[in-house]
Amino acid sequence: MDDGVRTGEAARARPTALEWFALAASLFLSLQYAWVLDDAYIYARYVDNLLHLGRGLVFNDGEYVEGYSSPLWCLLLVPVRALGLPWWTAIRLLGLVCAAASWWLLVLLARRAAPATARPFNLAAILLCFNYAVQSYFTSGVEAPMVQLVACAFALYVFDPRQRAAAVLVGLAPMVRHELVLPLAIALVWTWRSSGAFPWRPTLVAALTLGPWLVFRVLYYADVFPNTFYLKDEVNWARGLEYLHDTAVTYGVYVLAPLLAALAWALVRSNVATASSLRTKERWVLLASASAVCVYVAKIGGDPRHYRYLAFPFCVLACASQGLLEHALQAATPRMRSFAPALGVLLALGVFALHPRQLAGHPISRTVEHFKVGEINDAQYHRLHYDLDFDPWVWDAGDETLDDIDLDFIWRDKPQLPQGPVPIRGEYRRYREAGLSARDFDVYGEGWCVRTWKRFSQSLIHKDGLTDPILARAKVPSHRAAHKRGLKEFTADVVTLRQRYGFKAGAAREWVAAGEAPEWIARNLETLDAIERKAFNRHALLENVELVLRGRLAFDPYVGERP
């Protein structure tokens, strides 16, 4: 290869001005839209219990329940938190890293999906880097930043399986969220069939991460799925399809998808490109992978928050468009190609202007009014909440400061109540030095996750069932996705069970033997006893395998007619 060819390839590999603009927009908007989903504080409680309170990777001391949805995200938060960063700072830093890494993968993808002689346009970067939902979910504190990063890596891997970083991220997908095992399987089969070589790298990454985690999960939690899987395992196609529609109608999927499909058809029909040069098979693989996740999301009824569960398929669908405009522009006249940067800027502004139906105006100001559409909220609900309203442009927003109410709750009935406001990590230290444990405090029911994190001194029963193994398995109809109002009527009984008989296996049996247990506990005693054996297991492998083989252990708590 001569020097001229190498120089041309190097120049093409460098990001264009439009791509640098997309990166700048992504980093700025990720910060401007930054927020914290209340559920993120479940991760915070697990990680702080491990690092600061010595309780292990648990929500309640001595109760082994995997109440978080993403093992990889939880494990990533451990070393980040160990650096001493406040959660609000850590969330934004991780979001910026994932946003920048996703942008770089999109740059690489643009070079793989477009003709070698074309100047990159990078439609996927425009569709994603200026999008409100995508940039919002690079923060939030839950696993969405990793989901979107994996989605971009997945698209790059399908187009170029030789990309090592992309292959590693694809192999990690099931550790990010369990449903991502579906696109992983599709990618592995596609790569094997198309190349004739077994995809060792992502397979080994998946085997060497998910395999040990499943062993750990069985040994530590006596289960093969997280607690939230049981809570959300329902069939509600009507609600799920409405959830898909909420995102699709907001971001022009109904318009853009047919237009891009028509463009691909026209390019092949007019002999501007062949199906092979257009990489149509790779695009079908991306569409199939996105559809598989969409079907799962629709089946479980979606999510109460706009876009969140569609982060992977939405990003993959955007990546499926990569390279189409480059093929079209290559056939255009030089004068038409000169307008490409202006077209890119106009498209970017159009994408930026889109916002959810749940908002009265554009969210760039952070103060726009929010209202629920159907059963679906937007991130703005949490962004405006007084417990979660943090300044995105300051290093430390004071999010870890406890006020007098929090302190009174933590140290209730204890002498020498400290004067607030005080840092939570100082109270962790004071709590340990006092030789206290959760057994010295009352058990309490709570549904707002940020409070479960701040009220670390006590064992808490989450009213929505996110972290409680009994409530998660109760056959209670949901009033909105993953939210079961009926669980609250049983929360008080679980609180009483734990307060009187402790966090231990056999507690329900003792209550029934005392003749004071509610009828729903007495009727389901065998199932509840097995659930307790799982949650309060002895970390004995053979015993835990036997418990795992018991299955889901769902039960009906209603006596008489169901609501």
Description:
The chain has 563 residues and is mostly helical. It has three domains: 17-365, no CATH class; 400-436, no CATH class; 438-563, no CATH class. 58% of the residues lie in helices and 2% in strands. Helix 23 links the parallel strand 3 (444-446) and strand 4 (460-462). The radius of gyration is 25 Å and the shape is globular.
Estimate the global geometry from the Cα principal axes: globular
Task: State the share of residues found in helices, binned by percent.
Answer: 55-70%
DSSP summary: helix tally: 29
- Average pLDDT works out at 93
- Count up the domains: 3
What are the segments in which pLDDT stays under 50 over at least 5 consecutive residues? Answer: 1-10
Assembly type: single chain
- Please give the number of β-strands: 4
Largest β sheet strand count, sense and barrel closure: 2 strands, antiparallel
User: What is the first-to-last residue Cα distance?
Assistant: 74 Å
Sheet with most strands: strand arrangement: 1-2
Helix/strand/pairing category: mainly alpha
Radius of gyration: 25 Å
Strand content: under 5%
Could you write a compact summary of the structure shown?
The chain is mostly helical and 563 residues long. The chain is 58% helix and 2% strand.
Which helices and strands occur, and which strands form pairs?
Layout: H1 3-13, H2 17-32, H3 40-51, H4 71-82, H5 87-113, H6 123-129, H7 132-136, H8 144-159, H9 164-176, H10 181-195, H11 200-221, H12 227-232, H13 237-250, H14 253-269, H15 280-299, H16 311-319, H17 324-330, H18 334-337, H19 340-353, H20 380-383, E1 401-402, H21 404-410, E2 422-423, H22 424-433, E3 444-446, H23 449-454, E4 460-462, H24 469-473, H25 487-501, H26 507-513, H27 519-523, H28 525-535, H29 541-548
Parallel strand pairs: 3-4
Antiparallel strand pairs: 1-2
Helix pairs in contact: 2-5, 2-6, 3-4, 5-6, 5-8, 6-19, 8-9, 8-15, 8-16, 9-11, 10-15, 13-15, 14-17, 15-16, 25-26, 26-28
